[in-house]
């Protein structure tokens, strides 16, 4: 037997959503999250409880922003970027695809994080030593 599943955007009633925010299929925004104005959230993006997303942020498909993460204004996230709890992402940050920002990590304003990068827990990027690439695109 064939079943069809319809995925819908799920925004908790306690979340605060700014003006002009665009969400796609299967976007989830949990309780007490705050999303600034003019953000674009792709398919299957998850914003967990108490996360704060600045204005003008774009997140492509499959991004996960865990609890108590703070993302600055005008950031661009590629596909499948995971930002673990209590991390801080500065304003103007650009990230490629398949990135993991581990817990308690700080990414400074206007930094560029390459595709496939893992930033270790509790560090500040860029500082010249924190990047561990999982693979190098050819």
TrEMBL record:
Annotated ranges, domain Mannose-1-phosphate guanyltransferase C-terminal: 14-115
One Pfam family this sequence matches: GMPPB_C
Source superkingdom: Archaea
Descriptive protein name: Mannose-1-phosphate guanyltransferase C-terminal domain-containing protein
